[in-house]
Design a protein that fits this description.
Elements lengths: L21 H6 L8 H11 L20 H20 L2 H4 L6 H15 L11 H8 L1 H20 L4 H14 L14 H13 L1 H8 L3 H20 L10 H12 L7 H13 L2
Helix pairs in contact: 3-8, 6-10, 8-11, 9-10, 9-11, 11-12, 12-13
């Protein structure tokens, strides 16, 4: 994709990690239908507190804690998330060095160090093929299978997980060193947002996920791209409006996202700025 040339967005199809984020988005989970068991499992992982994501209002937004408390809360929720994963048999059996948190930090570092090819992708068939196999090439077979298992098995916590991971990135500049436990810069995450929103390779990953994972990944990638625009970091000039409009249409007919209306309100607010 060239800065001055419009490239058609093809099958805009998913967090997190983050990357965390666009990446996280790929790395993490799918949400099962509602009910007492889903609520119980989410509470077990994250506790009763509501995660407040910028631009996404919660029922307790008027009682949001002070900035320092938000930083501490996010760190504790990240720790709870990975502690929960460590207790799962399919992860414990892999004997990850340093536990799941340290392992995923190392995977994240590798992904950020080797971002996907997001410029002029369709000019070279090899670039398309490399992007379609990006995570396998960077992380290897064992780690790719691990991420696949997490996506399949941890469906109950997808929305909370994506919110916590995105918030960790958003709070980095506001929090002290003892704030969020994951450190990822917007500049480093930006290529993955472009990857999922505007490349054939990124679309091929999303089309293989269920609709919830796909839409959540697109949602947080759009939040990242909006931040990149506001901070003048969208150096590839990707137009946010086409993927945003497509996602809004998809969300309106979605029946499997608990915070669907909040996502739509946030996207409407972003769209009004363009």
């Amino acid at each position: 994709m060239e800065t001055k040339r419009k490239v058609p967005i093809k099958k805009i199809l998913i967090v997190v990690l983050i990357v965390v984020l666009g990446l996280a988005a790929y790395l993490y989970w799918g949400l099962e239908r509602g009910g007492p068991e889903r609520v119980k499992k989410t509470s077990e992982v994250f506790g009763p507190a509501v995660t407040v994501v910028p631009g996404v209002q919660s029922p307790t937004a008027d009682r949001a804690p002070a900035a320092e408390d938000v930083c501490k809360e996010n760190r504790e929720k990240l720790q709870a998330l990975f502690a929960y994963l460590d207790r799962q048999g399919y992860i414990a059996s892999r004997q990850l060095k340093g536990g799941s948190f340290e392992h995923f930090k190392s995977l994240l570092a590798r992904l950020l160090d080797r971002p996907p090819l997001v410029q002029l992708e369709t000019d070279d068939l090899m670039r398309v093929l490399q992007n379609k196999a990006h995570f396998y090439r960077v992380l290897g077979k064992k780690n790719t299978l691990l991420l696949r298992d997490i996506i399949r098995k941890e469906g109950d916590i997808i929305e909370s997980s994506f919110a916590v991971l995105y918030q960790a990135m958003d709070l980095q500049e506001k929090c002290r060193p003892d704030g969020p436990a994951l450190q990822v810069s917007l500049k480093d995450v930006y290529p993955y947002a472009v990857f999922f929103l505007n490349t054939l390779g990124g679309s091929s990953y999303l089309i293989r996920r269920d609709s919830r994972v796909r839409m959540l990944t697109q949602y947080y990638c759009i939040l990242i791209l909006d931040q990149a625009n506001r901070r003048r970091l969208n150096n590839l000039g990707l137009d946010i409006r086409p993927p945003l409009d497509v996602l809004m249409r998809d969300l309106k007919s979605a029946a499997n996202l608990a915070r669907k209306e909040e996502y739509l309100d946030t996207l409407k607010s972003i769209r009004a700025g363009y």
